[in-house]
Specification:
Order of helices and strands: HEHHEEHEEEEEEHHHHH
Helix content: 25-40%
Shape: elongated
Number of helices: 9
Number of strands: 9
Radius of gyration: 23 Å
């Protein structure tokens, strides 16, 4: 069997560069769209053929696929599972200069929760379901099965990488890939800029819908409220956004079955106000979360 064209030794070419291409080809055969990264963990820029978006400006939100250019340009949209493209002459220079291999999580129906420091990892261990975990230089990647909108800085030290994003390949990790939980999806939801409905007469506007409670034990609810209070209390920045996303997560899990009482909601509001939120802001955030969930 002959070696793939692009990884035949060329003079003193470092073995590490050959390893990057070998890794990319293996991942592609396993269904993971891959691309080469420059030093600094950045993708290769537009090639000469596509400079100034001469190819039509792909990728973008309306047309998010790769252009017809064979070069590995256009960032995340260059990611592919086509081994012939990856091992083509057109990609050879990129692999010679590559410092790492990246992949497009959304293209493989995956979501990466990028935890960038020990504090973020500690938060994830209390707030998120266990899943496949990959160590990084400063923290961990938690990988879930299912794609979603990507968003950076959803909380201190936490980014979400899925659709229209790339993540560096750092190995297979440990554990089993769990289904993408609502707790991660709600992190990427932006609060409406203004409250469309903001009841002013009540501090905690809430009553359940009378559905049968699926949780079967008050311990589950108590732990959820305690974790929500902790999340708000530990917010170091973007407090208003953190409060809103926390309210959204609590309501998505407990808001439809009648579990929540005014006592529970008051605990959330008290934690938020201790971080500087006004009663009005708390009420608006709660109302917006209810509207977002259609409750």
């Amino acid at each position: 069997m002959t070696q793939p064209t692009a990884i035949r030794r060329q003079g003193n070419r470092p073995l590490a560069l050959e390893a990057h291409l070998c890794t990319a080809l293996r991942l592609a055969t396993e269904g993971l769209p891959v691309l080469p990264l420059h030093r600094g963990k950045v993708p290769f820029g537009n090639c000469c053929r596509c400079a100034g978006n001469a190819c039509g400006g792909r990728p973008n939100m309306k047309n998010p696929g790769p252009c017809s250019c064979p070069q590995p340009c256009h960032g995340w949209a260059a990611a592919t599972t086509d081994t012939h493209t990856i091992d083509s002459t057109a990609w050879a220079r990129a692999w010679r200069e590559a410092a790492a291999v990246a992949y497009h999580p959304g293209g493989a129906d995956l979501t990466v929760v990028d935890l960038d420091n020990p504090a973020a990892v500690a938060w994830a261990r209390t707030a998120l379901p266990a899943t496949l975990t990959v160590p990084t230089t400063r923290g961990e990647h938690w990988i879930y099965r299912g794609a979603m909108t990507s968003r950076n800085a959803v909380r201190p030290g936490v980014d979400i990488k899925s659709r229209m994003a790339y993540a560096r390949w750092l190995g297979s990790g440990t554990g089993s890939t769990a289904a993408l939980p609502d707790a991660v999806r709600t992190l990427a939801v932006k609060e409406p800029s203004t409250a469309r409905r903001a009841p002013q007469s009540r501090t905690a506007p809430l009553k359940g819908h009378g559905s049968e409670c699926p949780h079967r034990t008050p311990t589950y609810l108590e732990r959820g409220i305690a974790m929500a209070v902790q999340r708000i209390t530990e917010a170091g920045s973007a407090v208003h956004a953190t409060v809103y996303r926390t309210f959204l997560a609590v309501l998505s899990t407990h808001g439809r079955c009648g579990c929540l009482t005014d006592t529970h909601v008051n605990r959330l509001f008290t934690a938020a106000q201790a971080k500087g939120e006004s009663p009005r802001h708390c009420t608006d955030a709660w109302a917006n979360a209810l509207i977002t969930l259609g409750m």
